[in-house]
Design a protein that fits this description.
With 135 residues, this protein is of the alpha+beta class. The chain is built from 3 helices and 8 strands, in the order E-E-H-E-E-E-H-E-H-E-E. It has a 6-stranded mixed beta sheet with strand order 3-4-5-6-8-7. It has a two-stranded antiparallel sheet with strand order 1-2. It is globular.
Length: 135
């Protein structure tokens, strides 16, 4: 493998960086890879309704688009630790968190207990929910 490159589950990433380095970088989206999981994250600004407000506006967000925990690492708290770090960065940057297309039903309950809310609009029957959180 070439120096400065790492393989994510979906594509080759030229600049390997951790979550903090990503949020401080010029990149708008990136794969964050560590020895336990891979996560595709984005920094966005979207015109939408924030979960605690009545009117739509431009909302700055950190989006967690995809997470793949390595099989041997599942159930050991690695996703929880990553999420805690993600929430800490969002708080520091004063951004909402948007978790896209939650496919694991147990994860919906887990996230709701942490204060996340299901995005109600645009979810049809059979769709996986997306969730918002303001840390």
């Amino acid at each position: 493998m070439e120096h400065g490159k790492t393989k994510s589950p979906h594509k080759e990433v030229k600049d390997k960086m951790n979550l903090h380095e990503f949020v401080e970088s010029r990149y708008k989206n990136h794969w964050i890879d560590n020895r336990f999981l891979s996560a595709y994250v984005r920094k966005t600004e979207r015109y939408c309704q924030a979960p605690d407000e009545l009117e739509p506006r431009i909302v700055k967000r950190l989006d967690l688009v995809s997470v793949e925990v390595k099989d041997k690492c599942k159930g050991k708290g690695h996703f929880t630790k990553f999420l805690e770090d993600f929430e800490k960065e969002a708080r520091r940057l004063e951004r909402y968190i948007y978790i896209e297309d939650v496919q694991e039903p147990r994860l919906v309950t887990f996230l709701e207990k942490r204060g996340y809310r299901i995005k109600q609009y645009g979810v049809g029957e059979g769709d996986n929910p997306s969730m918002y959180y303001k840390p």
